[in-house]
C-alpha cells in the first residue's frame, strides 16, 4: 500500500485510490470465480438444547481464490453487492443449499436437519422477483418450503418498500424468516412490530462475555424474553464454550450455534452431540 508522504498539498489519497482499484479487480475476479467454479458452500450446525440434535444448518459461502487463497465472505459479498454479481452468486448459493439438504434427506432420513438457513443480502431482498427465485430453487431440489429459512439483517429489512413485500411473499411460500445479527442494528424493536419474522438470531457480541459477570447476561436475557413474548424463536450465535452454552440454556435459549457445536464445513457432523465432557 502507498505510504503517507506528508506532502503538504496532496489531498487525494493514494491509499484510497489503490483500494478502489483493488475493489474493482476483485469484482472482475468474482466473475471469473463464478465461471471457474471457485465457490463452495459450507454448513454450520444449529443445535437444539438439551437434546443436542442438529435441527438446522446455516449455509455459508466460501471463495477459494486461485492466487490469494481463501477470501472471507465479509470481504467479497460487499463487492458482489456493489457490482451486481450478488444476484447470480446468491442464486447459486440458494440452489446449492437446497440441493444439499434434499440430498441429506434422501441419504439420512430422520437424521437429516429439518432446515437449511440461507443468507440473503440487502440487494437480493430489494429486487422484485426474489421470492420467485426462492420458489424455483425449492422446486428444482424438490424441497418443501418449510425446509428453508432466509436470513437477513435488520439493515436490509430497514430499506422498507420492496424488501418488506419480499418478506411477505416468502412467508406466503411457507419459508421462514430470520433476522440476523439481532440487537446490533438501530431499529430492532420497532421493526418486530411491522415486519414478518420467525426467528431472531442473537448476535455473537451478546454471547461473547456472557460468563464473565452477571452484568453481561442482561442483554442476552432481555433478547430471549422479547423473543418469547412475541412468539418468535431465538438462536444464539457464536457460542464457543461449554460455559456459554450452559448460561444460554439457563436463560432459556433452546437453539445454539457456534464453534463449540461445530465449525462450518462441507461435511458437517449431523449426529446429535454427546453431552460435553467435564
Ligand atoms: P453471519 O451470517 O452472521 O454468519 C456467521 C459468521 O460467524 C460466519 O462467518 C461463521 O463462520 C462465523 N461463526 C460461527 N460460529 C462462530 C463462533 O463460534 N465464533 C466465531 N468467531 N465465528 C463464528 P463467515 O462464514 O466468515 O461469514 C461472515 C459473514 O458473511 C456472514 O455473517 C454473512 O453476513 C456473510 N455471508 C456468509 N455467507 C453468505 C452467503 O451465502 N450470502 C450472503 N449474502 N452473505 C453471506
Ligand atoms: Ca447469517
Ligand atoms: Ca449472524
Ligand atoms: Ca454477522
From TrEMBL:
Molecular-function GO term, any one: cyclic-guanylate-specific phosphodiesterase activity
Coiled-coil stretches noted in the UniProt entry, renumbered to this chain: none
Domain of life: Bacteria
EAL domain residues: 23-278
Alphabetical UniProt keywords: Membrane, Transmembrane, Transmembrane helix
Name used for this protein in its record: Diguanylate cyclase/phosphodiesterase
Origin species: Paractinoplanes toevensis
Residues shown, of full length: 449 to 726 of 726
Amino acid at each position: 500500500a502507498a505510504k503517507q508522504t506528508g506532502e503538504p498539498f496532496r489531498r487525494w489519497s493514494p491509499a484510497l485510490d489503490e483500494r478502489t482499484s483493488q475493489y474493482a479487480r476483485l469484482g472482475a475476479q468474482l466473475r471469473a470465480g463464478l465461471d471457474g467454479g471457485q465457490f463452495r458452500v459450507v454448513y454450520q450446525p444449529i443445535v437444539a438444547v438439551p437434546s443436542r440434535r442438529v435441527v438446522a444448518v446455516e449455509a455459508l459461502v466460501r471463495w477459494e481464490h486461485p492466487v490469494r487463497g481463501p477470501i472471507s465472505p465479509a470481504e467479497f459479498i460487499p463487492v458482489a453487492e456493489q457490482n451486481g454479481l450478488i444476484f447470480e452468486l446468491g442464486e447459486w448459493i440458494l440452489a446449492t443449499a437446497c440441493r444439499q439438504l434434499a440430498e441429506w434427506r434422501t441419504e439420512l432420513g430422520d437424521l437429516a436437519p429439518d432446515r437449511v438457513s440461507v443468507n440473503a443480502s440487502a440487494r437480493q431482498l430489494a429486487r422484485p422477483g426474489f421470492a420467485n427465485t426462492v420458489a424455483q430453487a425449492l422446486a428444482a431440489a424438490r424441497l418443501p418450503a418449510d425446509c428453508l429459512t432466509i436470513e437477513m439483517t435488520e439493515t436490509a429489512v430497514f430499506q422498507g418498500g420492496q424488501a418488506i413485500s419480499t418478506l411477505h411473499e416468502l412467508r406466503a411460500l411457507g419459508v421462514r424468516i430470520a433476522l440476523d445479527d439481532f440487537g446490533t442494528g438501530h431499529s430492532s424493536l420497532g421493526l418486530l412490530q411491522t415486519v414478518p419474522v420467525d426467528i431472531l438470531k442473537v448476535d455473537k457480541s451478546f454471547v461473547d462475555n456472557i460468563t464473565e459477570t452477571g452484568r453481561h447476561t442482561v442483554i442476552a436475557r432481555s433478547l430471549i424474553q422479547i423473543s418469547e413474548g412475541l412468539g418468535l424463536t431465538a438462536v444464539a450465535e457464536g457460542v464457543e464454550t461449554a460455559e456459554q452454552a450452559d448460561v444460554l440454556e439457563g436463560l432459556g435459549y433452546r437453539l445454539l450455534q457456534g464453534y463449540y457445536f461445530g465449525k462450518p464445513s462441507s461435511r458437517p457432523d449431523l449426529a446429535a452431540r454427546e453431552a460435553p465432557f467435564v
